[in-house]
Design goal:
single chain, mainly alpha, flat
Amino acid sequence: MTRKGPLAINYEALWQEGMKDWHGNMPERMVNDQLEEQFWAQSVARKKVGQTDPYAALIFQELQKKD
């Protein structure tokens, strides 16, 4: 049995494949830097100061247990 180490896996290719839509196309914002910047600016603008996403709160709780 041959094992692949973490360096033998092309994580960038896996990520790009996972970003494709149902038709195998990459979303426009993934190939257009201006659209990508707009996406993140809008995402940050929607957040309130101190707002935490539900999944982040769970991760934080787990990290606190490690101390």
